[in-house]
Structure formats: structure tokens, C-alpha cells
Amino acid sequence: MVSVLVVNGQSLQRLALRTLLTPEPGLTVVGEAAGGQDAVRASTVFRPDVVLMESQLSGTDSIDTIRRIARPPRLPGLPESAGGQGSAPRVLVLTSAGQEGYAPAALRAGARGFLLDDAAPDELTAAVRVVAAGDAVVTPGLTRALIDAVRQQHTVRPLPHASGLDSLTGRERDVLVAVASGRSNAEIAEWLSIAPTTVKSHVSNVLAKIGARARVQAVAFAYETGLVRPAA
């Protein structure tokens, strides 16, 4: 059974989401929260599998809320799986059109997925299941917009340590650059004159080495490390 915590500043929206999710086989809504502090507290109390939250919580730093939920501090003396990211809820964000620029920071903070808030009910329930299973999900309509949002950021802040980048082979760096440019696997294969299956393997290796679960996270990583420069 996948447990879900619903976080939304509007009571009617929380009711609508609960009403939608509750009848779904294998899903259960264990609690609700209206703001960031309540969401962090409720995620600690209920320990849901998925936290479904809106992107802009009134009077709250949503990025900080995501970080505190997705990356809770590990308790001293306990293994990571007993209080660290291994047991942390997975955050799925509902965002409105035009708010794509918020997504890169949210992904870096630990969000596992993004959906437009006008997504169809079956898209939402499917996304909850995908995120609960440990995978990342970003709807196709958002992927291009998210990549553009990252590319248009004018400030590059190189990471204090780029061990993930250092671990990439030359070909894997080429693939990451291509991913950051928004190219599909087929386009990368044509550009590098390699098989699409080889591209897929390289992409998987890149994601694993830099600790990303989705291509959009890899795009943010490429720009943050300075591997790719933002558009002027």
C-alpha cells in the first residue's frame, strides 16, 4: 500500500486530491498539511511513501520544505537507512504552467517528480505510483520547458566538489552535454555516430554516477558544474 501525504494551501484542493486518491487500489492518504512547517511535521509523524505538494505554498519557502522532507537529518548512531535519505518520503510536485523556472532548484533539493496541476487524474495516480517505486517522473510537456529554464539561468555556481563529474568518461561527458542541450537519444546517437542502445547505456551510467534520477536533474548538474554554460 502506497501512503500519501497531501500538501496544499487550499482546503478544497486538499479535499479534491484526497477524494481522487482514496478510491485508487493500493493508494491511501494518511494525512494533509496546509503549509511547509506542517508538511515537515506530518511527514515525520506519518512517514508517507509520497508527499504530493503544490509548488508555491503561501508564506513558505517551498524549496526548503522539499529539502527538509526529502533529506531529513540522519540521527546520530543510526545507519543511513534508519533516518536518512533511504527512508525519506519522495516528493511529487504539482506546478502550474509558467512556474517551470522553480523546478531545477526543487529537483536539486530532492523532488522526485513534477506534474502540471491540470494533469488528468490517471496521470496523477500513475505519477504517484512511479515516484513511490523510486523512479523519477516529469511529464513530457514540462521536460522541454524545464531544460529551457535551466539553460536561461545566467549565473553558474560550480559545485564545491565535482566528484560525479570527475567520474565520467570523455564519451559520457559528451552525452551529458548533448542531454543538457535537449537532444533526444536518437539525436545524440546521430550526433555521436553511435547506436541508440549505446546512448541509452551511457545516459544510465551518467545518471548513476552523478546521483540523478531524471534527465532534467542531469541538465541542472551540467550547468551547475560549469560543464555547459548558460545561454547569454
Structure description:
- With 232 residues, this protein is α/β, with parallel strands linked by helices.
- The protein has two domains: 2-150, Rossmann fold, CATH 3.40.50; 156-224, Arc Repressor Mutant, subunit A (Orthogonal Bundle).
- The chain has helices at residues 11-21, 36-46, 62-70, 103-109, 121-132, 140-151, 163-166, 170-180, 185-192, 196-210, 215-224, and strands at residues 2-7, 27-33, 50-54, 90-95, 113-116, 137-138.
- The chain has a six-stranded parallel beta sheet, with helices on both faces.
- Helix 2 runs parallel beside helix 3 (62-70), helix 6 packs parallel to helix 11 (215-224) and helix 9 (185-192) crosses helix 10.
CATH topology name of the largest domain, in short, is Rossmann fold
Helix content, binned percent: 40-55%
Mean pLDDT: 82
The H-level CATH homologous superfamily of the largest domain, spelled out, is Response regulator
Shape: elongated
Radius of gyration: 18 Å
The figure for the number of domains is 2
Number of helices: 11
Largest β sheet strand count, sense and barrel closure: 6 strands, parallel
CATH architecture of the largest domain: 3-Layer(aba) Sandwich
Q: How many beta-strand segments?
A: 6
What class, by secondary structure content? alpha/beta
Reading off the top of the CATH hierarchy, the class of the largest domain is best stated as: Alpha Beta
Question: Distance between termini?
Answer: 48 Å
Parts with pLDDT < 50 across at least 5 consecutive residues: 78-86
Q: How is this structure best summarized?
A:
With 232 residues, this protein is of the alpha/beta class. The chain has helices spanning 11-21, 36-46, 62-70, 103-109, 121-132, 140-151, 163-166, 170-180, 185-192, 196-210, 215-224; strands at 2-7, 27-33, 50-54, 90-95, 113-116, 137-138.
